Amino acid sequence: MTNSVDRRTQAAQKRRRLTAAAARVLHEQGVERTTLAGIAREAGVPVGNVYYYFKTKDELVRAALGEHRDRLDELTAGLDRLPAPRDRLRALIEAWVSERETTARYGCPLGTLAAELGKRADGTPAAEAGAVIRRLMDWAAAQFRAWDVPDPDAHALTLVSAYQGMSLLAHALRDPAVMTREGARLLRWLDSLRAGPGVSP
Amino acid sequence: MTNSVDRRTQAAQKRRRLTAAAARVLHEQGVERTTLAGIAREAGVPVGNVYYYFKTKDELVRAALGEHRDRLDELTAGLDRLPAPRDRLRALIEAWVSERETTARYGCPLGTLAAELGKRADGTPAAEAGAVIRRLMDWAAAQFRAWDVPDPDAHALTLVSAYQGMSLLAHALRDPAVMTREGARLLRWLDSLRAGPGVSP
Amino acid sequence: MTNSVDRRTQAAQKRRRLTAAAARVLHEQGVERTTLAGIAREAGVPVGNVYYYFKTKDELVRAALGEHRDRLDELTAGLDRLPAPRDRLRALIEAWVSERETTARYGCPLGTLAAELGKRADGTPAAEAGAVIRRLMDWAAAQFRAWDVPDPDAHALTLVSAYQGMSLLAHALRDPAVMTREGARLLRWLDSLRAGPGVSP
Amino acid sequence: MTNSVDRRTQAAQKRRRLTAAAARVLHEQGVERTTLAGIAREAGVPVGNVYYYFKTKDELVRAALGEHRDRLDELTAGLDRLPAPRDRLRALIEAWVSERETTARYGCPLGTLAAELGKRADGTPAAEAGAVIRRLMDWAAAQFRAWDVPDPDAHALTLVSAYQGMSLLAHALRDPAVMTREGARLLRWLDSLRAGPGVSP
DNA sequence: GATGAATGAGTGTTCATTCAT
DNA sequence: GATGAATGAACACTCATTCAT
C-alpha cells in the first residue's frame, strides 16, 4: 500500500516536474522553438519517458498553460486575503512590476503563448491560453465590482490590456523600465478611479 | 542598356514580391511555422531563387519587418497631412480599430513578431522589430510634443502599449470587439488630455 | 495447496486470454501493425505482465499460431465424426464459406500470417505458420486417401491452395461473394471426383 | 533546352529508380518492415531526397503497386501477341511457374501486398492492390470470352484464385515445387475446358 | 509472481540551405 | 541570374523490452 502510494506520488511528482519544465522552457523559447528533448532534459527525464505522461507535444503545451493557470490562481488567492478590492488590484500591479526582469527577457508567459498559438489554423491549445487570460480578467472584474466601480468589465479589460501591452513593449524593447513606468501609471489610474466620473485609461 | 534596366527592374519587383509575401505569411503563420517554400509559393517565385535575394530565412524576416516599417511610415506620412497633432493621433487610433478583424485573427504584425523573435538567444531580428515599434512610439511622442502635452514620451508609451495590449487581447480572445471598446476608450482619453495636468490613463 | 492450484489456474487462464487476444488481434491487424500493448489491452492484462508469460513478441506470435492450430484441430476433430470422408471435405468447404465475412475483411488467419512472416530473413515464426497449413493439407490428404481418390496429396494441395486463393481474393477485393462462388465450385469439383481418373482442378 | 530535357529525364529516371527499388524491397520485406531509408539506400538516393519525389511512404507504396500494374500490362501485352486465347492463358501459367523460386521466397508481390494492406482500417493503398488483381482477372476473363468459354468471369476468378493460392502455399511452405505441380494441373485444366460441359475447378 | 514506469533505438517526415546546370 | 533537385540535420512520436518494487 505504502509502496503503491509512493509510486503514485513519484509519478505525480514527475508529471509535475515535466509540467513545470514545460512551462518554463515554453515561456523562454516559445512553442515552436521548444523541443520535447529540451523539456525532457530540463526535467531530467529521458525523452521516451515523456510520452508516458503526455501523448503529444500539444498536450504538454496544454499542461504548461494549466500550470500558468494554477500559478495565477495561487496569486489571486493570495491577493484575496487583502481586505480592500482596490488594494488587491494594487498588489496585482505590483506583482507584475516585480516580475519586470523576466518579462523584459521573455514576455508575459500567457501573452506570448497566446500570440504564438493564436495563429494556428486549428486553434487547438490557443483557446486554452485565451481562457486563462479571461480568468485573469474575470478576477479583476470581480474586484472592480466589489469596489463598486461602474462598468467593472470594461475596467478589467483596460487593466489586463494594459498589462499585456506593457509586457509586450518591455519585451520588444528589452527594457524592464517600461514595466516600472507603466505600472506606476496604472497605480495612479487606480487611485483616480471613483474620484469622480473618471477619465478611464 | 534597356535590357539591363529591365532586368534590374524585374529583379527589384521580385524582391518586392518576396518581401510582401513574407510580411503577409509571417504575420499570418508566425515565424517558426512559416516555411521558405510557403513564402516562395505565395510570391510566385521558385524556392531556389529566393536565395538569390535573401541569404537566409532571417534576412527575409528582417525584410518583412522592413516592409512593416515602410507601411508604418506611409501611414504616419498620411496622418502628418492632418493639421492638428491630436487629430493625427485620433486618426491613428481609428486606423487601428479599422483593422480589428485582421488583428483579432492574427494579432498586430509587429507585436506578434516581436513576441516570437524576442525569445531568441541571439536577439538578431528581434532588435529590428523593437526598432519599428520604437519608431511608432517616437512618432506618437512627436505628436504629443507638438500638441504640447507634458511628458510626451510617457504618453506615447501609454498609447502604443495600449495598442499592443488591446491587439493581443483581441487576438487571444478572438474578439474584434476588444479593439472597438478599447479604441473608443483611447479616444476619450485623448479628449481628456490637456484639460489640466491630467492623471493620464 | 488450493491457493497454489488457484494461482496456477489463474496464470493458465491469463496465458490463454493473452493467446486468444493475440490470435484475434494479429489476424485483424497483421503482425507488424499489432503492438504488444494492444494485445495486452485486449486481453485485460497489464503490459509489463505479458513478459512473464511470453519472453518476446515473436513468442506471442507463435502462441497465436498455436491457437490457430488448436482451432484447426478442433474443427477437423468435429469433421472426423462424419462417417464419409467426402462429407468431411464438403463440411470443411462449407465451414470456409461460412466464415466469408471475416475472411473478406481480414483474410485467412493462417494465410495472411504466413504471407507476412514468410518474408523475414530469419524465418523464425514463419515455419510455424507453414506447419499449421501443412497440417491442414495432411488432414485433407488423409480424407482423400480414405476416400480412395488417387494421388491424395495432389488433391489436398489443390484443395488447400484453392482455399488460400479464394480467401486472398475475397480479402483483396473485399468481396465475400468470392468465397461463395469458389466454395460452390469446390463442392462441384468434389462431386466430380472418382467419376473417373478425373481432370482435377 | 537540351539541358532542361536532360534534367527532366534524369529526374524521371530517379523517380523510376525509386519506384523500382520500392517495388523490389516492398515485395521482399513487406510494407511494414520496409523503411524509407532502406528503399533510398537500394535506389542509391539520400533519404531526404526521397521526399522530393514522394510525399509519404504510402505514396511510394502506391507507386510500387503502379509498377506492378505496369509489369502486368507488359506481360499481358506480350501474351496478346499470341493468336489463340488458350495459348495466351497457357503462356500466362507458364510465366507464373517460371517465377517459382522468387515466389517461394517472397510470395506473389500483388497477393502479399494486398494481404498486408487489406487489414488497414482505412483501406488506403489496399484498394489499389485489389484493382491491379482485378485487372489481371479482367484480362483473363477477356481470354476466356474470346475463346468462347461459357461464364468467362467465373473461369477467370478460378484461374487467378488458383494462382494466388499456389503462390501463397509455395511461399508458406518455401517450396517452389508447389508452383510446378499446381501449374501443371492448371494447364491440364485448361486443356479439359470446352471438351464438354466441363468439370471446372 | 504482478505491475506501473523507464528506456532507447528507430521511423517517417520536414525544411533551411546548397548545388549543378 | 534562374531553377529544379539534393542534402542532412533535426524533430515528434512509437514500441519492444527491461526494471524496480
Automatic annotation (TrEMBL), chains A, B, C, D:
Superkingdom of this protein's organism: Bacteria
Pfam families, sorted: TetR_C_13_2, TetR_N
InterPro entries noted in UniProt: Homeodomain-like_sf, HTH_TetR, Tet_transcr_reg_TetR-rel_C_sf, YxaF_TetR_C
Keyword vocabulary terms for this entry: DNA-binding, Transcription, Transcription regulation
Feature: DNA-binding region: 35-54
Boundaries of every HTH tetR-type domain copy: 12-72
PROSITE patterns per the UniProt record, alphabetical: HTH_TETR_2 (PS50977)
Protein name stated in the entry: TetR/AcrR family transcriptional regulator
Organism from which the protein derives: Streptomyces nogalater
